[in-house]
Amino acid sequence: MISNIERGKYSVIVCWALNRLARNAVDGALLIEQMDNKKLFAIVTPGKVYYNSGEDKLLLQIEFGLAKKYSDDLGPAVMRGMLSTLKRGRWPGLPKPGYINTRIKGETIQVVDEVRFPLLRKAIEMFLSGSTAQNVVDTINDNYGYRTVETAKTGNKPLSISSFYRILKDPFYYGLMVWNNEEGVLSPEVPRLMSEEEYWKIQQRLGNKGVPRPYIHKDVPYRGNIKCSVCGRNIITYPKKKKLKDGSYKIYYYAQCSNRKGCTQKHISLNVLEEQLLTLLGDIKISKDFHDWFIYWLKQDNEKESIDTSIGLQNLESQITNQYRRKNNLLDLKIDDRISDEDYKQKKIEIEEEIKKLEMHRSNIKYQADDWITRAEKRLDYALYAQEKLINGTSDEKTEILKNVGTNFLLNDGILCIDLNPVLNIFNKKHDLVNSELIGLELSDKLLNKENADILDSWLGDRESNPNFRDQNPTCYHYTISHCNRRGNCQIIAYQILKKTFNYP
Q1: Does 16 score more than 80 pLDDT?
Q2: Cα separation, 434 vs 421, whole angstroms
Q3: 248: alpha, beta or left, given left = phi > 0 and alpha = psi -120 to 50?
Q4: b or e along 403-433 (b: 16 or more beta carbons within 10 Å of the residue's beta carbon)?
Q5: Do 321 and 351 contact (CB within 8 A), yes or no?
Q6: What is the spatial distance between Cα 451 and Cα 22, in angstroms, rounded to a whole number?
Q7: If you count Cβ atoms within 10 Å of the first and of the last residue's Cβ in the chain, which end, N or C, has fewer?
Q8: Angle between the 288-335 and 450-462 helix axes, to the nearest 10 degrees?
Q9: DSSP result, 307-334
C-alpha cells in the first residue's frame, strides 16, 4: 500500500480504525511521512478525517502510540489468562484427543469424549500388554472405527501413528499439564486416560522415543501413588539420614507433599502410613483354609461355565457367519441391479454394524473366559499374603500392595484415605467367616452354605465385568467418611484408619 501511495496510485486511505493501519512505530511513521511529502492527502475513519495538518498529525501519532501499547499489553494479558486457567487445573488450549471442551458458568472446562476416550483407553491397554504401536492403531481404526473429531475444515479421520505416539508421550494424560514451560495439575474431576505408573512404563517401553523419567530416590515405596488432599500434588516418599548420639547414622523414611512451598500439609513418618495400611489389610485378610476352599469352588464352577461359554461362542460364530453371508448376497443383488444404490448402502452399513457388534461381544467373552479365574486367584492370594508382604517385602512389593487395595489414595493431615477395591469389600463384610478354619474336611466336603455361597456369587459375578470391576452402586464399608478438600461434592469413600488404630474422634 505504501508503494502504491508513493507512485501516486492512491491519495486517500479509508479504514475502520487507525489501529488497522499501524501497531508499531515504523508503520505509523511511514504514513505520516507520506503526508509530509504531499502524497497522502487524508486518512478517513468513521469518526474523523485526518488531514496533512500539524494537529491531525499529532493526533495520528497519539493514536498509533495507543495502538502500539494495546498490542504490547495484549500478549501479557493473554498469557496471564492462560496461566490462570492452567493453575485452576484446566488445559489452556484446544482439547486433547479423548477430551472435549465445554462451557459451564462462563468457564471452559475439559470433559471426557464419551466416544473416543474408551477407545484410546483400550489402545493404551493394548500397548501396555505388548502390542506394537502400529498394530494398536490398526486395531482401533479398523475394528473399533476410531475417527478424529470433525471440524469445519478437517477431522473425521483414522488415528494416525504419529498422533498415537504423541498421546503416549504426553504427561497430560496422567494429570501433569506442561504449557509454555509452566506446570499445572489437571483437575481431579477430569478422568485420566492412564495412571502415572502406566505413563512411565510406556516411556520405558518406547526407549529413545520416550520421555526420560526424572530422578527419584530408589528403593522407597509408594512414590507417585498418593495425592495431597490440600493441593492435589503428588505425595513423595524419601529417606533422610540422621546422626545419632553415639556418632552412627540411621535412615528414616518420610512422606511429604511435593508442593513444599505452596502446601500447608506437614510431612509424616512412613511408619504411620504403613500402620494404617496394616490395619486395613487386617480387615480384608482371609485364612489359608478359606483361601483353598474358595479356589476349589471357583474352579468347580468354572468347569460348568466353560461349557456354557463354548456354546455361546459357537452361537456367536454362527451369527457372524450368517451376517457375512447376508453381506455377500447383498452384493450379488447390487451387481444384478436388483437393488438401488441408496438401499444397498443403507443395508450394507446395517450389516457391518451388526458384524462389528457381534465380533466385539465374541472378543469380550473370550477375554472373560480366559482371564477371570486368574484375576480371582490373584485377589485371593492378595488377601492372604498382603500383610506379610507389607511387613517384609521390598519397596516394589509394598507399592504393589498399596495399588491393589483400592484407588484414589489421598493424604489428609496424616490420615490415609482410600477408595477400597469393591471386590475386596466382601471380605471386609464377612470378616469372621473368611477367617474361620474348616480343618479335617476335604475341600469338596466343606459345605457351600448360604453365607459363603454369597461370597462365591459376588466373585463369580466379577467374571462378567471388565478387569477394572466396580459396583454400579458400591456400598460404603468404612469407619468414617472423609470429604476431599479439593473436590467439593466429593464421591470418595475414605478409610480413616487412624480412627480404629488410635481411637480418633
Answers
A1: yes
A2: 17
A3: beta
A4: eebbebbbbbeebbbbbbbbbbbbbbebeeb
A5: no
A6: 83
A7: C
A8: 40
A9: HHHHHHHHHHHHHHHHHHHHHHHHHHHH
For residues 240 and 217, the answer to whether their CB atoms sit within 8 Å is: no
CA distance 129 to 1: 62
Cell of 397: 512389593
d(CA 374, CA 292): 14
- Categorize the per-residue pLDDT at 244 as very low, low, confident or very high, splitting at 50, 70 and 90: confident
Residue 180, number of CB atoms within 10 A of its CB: 9
Q: Which residues contact 124 (CB under 8 A, 6 or more apart)?
A: 168, 193, 194, 198, 202
Q: State the amino acid at position 235 in one-letter form.
A: I
Q: What is the mean pLDDT of residues 332-358?
A: 85
Give the orientation angle of helix 196-206 with respect to helix 161-169, to 10 degrees.
130
Buried/exposed code over 217-250 (b: 16+ C-beta within 10 A; e: otherwise): eeebbbbbbbbbbbbbbbbbbeeeeeeeeeeeee
Cα dihedral: 154, 157, 161, 164 (round 10):
80
Determine the Cα–Cα distance for residues 200 and 163; give it in Å rounded to an integer: 18
Three-class DSSP category at 236:
strand
**DSSP 8-state assignment for residue 351:** H
Reduced 3-state DSSP string for 25-92? HHHHHHHHHHHHCCCCCEEECCCCEEECCHHHHHHHHHHHHHHHHHHHHHHHHHHHHHHHHHHCCCCC
136: amino acid identity, one letter: V
> Has residue 203 got a pLDDT over 50?
yes
pLDDT tens, position by position, 124-134 = 999 999 889 99
- Using DSSP's 3-state secondary structure scheme, residue 254 falls into strand
Model's pTM, two decimal places?
A: 0.40
**Size of the chain, expressed as the number of residues it contains:** 505
Amino acid identity of residue 81, one-letter, is G
Per-residue pLDDT tens for 274-308?
888 888 888 888 877 777 777 776 676 666 556 55
Nearest CA to 463 out of 371, 380, 377 is that of: 371
